[in-house]
Every structure is written in C-alpha cells, then in structure tokens.
Design goal:
single chain; mainly alpha; 8 helices; about 0% strand
C-alpha cells in the first residue's frame, strides 16, 4: 500500500489515498506483532503476542475480503499511467527536501518520533526511486536502520507495559544511534547531494 500511495503521489493524484491508508492500517497490527515476535523473549511474552497476532490476522483477513478492497483493486486497474516527467520532477523535489532535513537532523539525540517521521519521508523517496527505475541501495540501508530503531521503540513501549523480552535493548538502541550519522553521509554521497 505504501508503494501504491507513492505511485499515486508521483502523478499528483490523491484519489484512493483513504482506501490505501485504511488497508495499511488494517495490516499494521499483524506487522508490528511479527516484528515483536522476531525479537524473541520469555515464553509467556511470546505466547501472549502470538494470541494477539491471531486476532489481528483474523481482522486483516476480514478487511482484505471486504468489498472496499475489491473496489480499490478495480480502481487501481483502471488508473491511467503516471507521466514520467512529472514523476521525475516530484522525485527531485522530494530528494532536495529530504537532503535539507537530513543535513539539519541531530542523529544522536532525535526522539523516536522524529526518527520515525524521517523514516517515512525516506521510505517515500525509496519507493519513488524504485518506481522511476532508479533504486538506491543507500536509501534502503538507511531506511532499514531507521526501521529497526522504530521497531525497538515499539518494543520499548511494550516493555513499559510490564513485558520485558530483552535485556540488551539499551545496547541495541545505542549501537543503532551510532550508525545513523555515517549511514546518512553515505546516502548523501550516493544521491550526489
């Protein structure tokens, strides 16, 4: 859904945004629980998460089989192609904005919410580059680092609820933080900015 939303935005279209956002939100709980389960932890923690995942997966299956999704798929099949020149101009604009934001970013002290917001912009650029057949490995690498930082923040929120699956959470977060600034510099070099 994220890639489809970027494709629509490359063409300056807002149609279907609500439907794609709704579908992504429908899948979010399953994805978040999959990430939490991948961290492991004590058996009771994993068992509880597995039960939550089953309920979330049932809800996702119901959403996917709804008429709303059928209508969304039909509308996407009928959508005209996106103009290449407009798409490239949009990518260039997004790339400049991300560069300015990233250069001003305090990678070592930014709160998790700020990292997540930056990650969303970076992911949008990544998908746009893929749509315009110009994938950038450094964008993916940086997005992966920021994704892991977000996953650790989600896990930390669960720990705050009295569940403690990892002892080395602080160490992992610190290690990730140390890698963000060098990853950003590599990304800027690869994008030629």
């Amino acid at each position: 859904t994220g890639r489809l939303r970027v494709w629509l935005r490359l063409g300056g279209r807002r149609v279907l945004e609500d439907d794609l956002r709704w579908l992504r939100k429908s899948a979010q709980a399953v994805r978040d629980l999959d990430v939490l389960l991948s961290f492991g932890g004590p058996k009771p923690f994993g068992g509880k998460l597995s039960q939550e995942r089953k309920a979330a997966l049932d809800a996702l299956r119901a959403a996917i089989s709804s008429p709303r999704v059928q209508g969304l798929l039909t509308a996407l099949r009928c959508s005209p192609p996106i103009g290449r020149e407009r798409a490239l101009a949009t990518v260039a604009r997004w790339q400049r904005a991300l560069g300015e934001r990233g250069d001003a970013f305090d990678w070592s002290a930014a709160p998790p919410e700020a990292l997540h917001a930056f990650r969303r912009r970076l992911r949008r650029l990544r998908y746009a580059l893929e749509w315009t057949l110009r994938p950038c490995p450094a964008v993916k690498a940086m997005a992966d680092l920021l994704g892991e930082a977000n996953d650790l923040a989600v896990l930390q929120a669960r720990i705050g609820n009295g569940e403690a699956p990892l002892e080395d959470l602080a160490g992992r977060k610190s290690h990730l933080r140390q890698g963000l600034a060098p990853a950003w510099r590599r990304l800027r070099r690869e994008l030629g900015a």
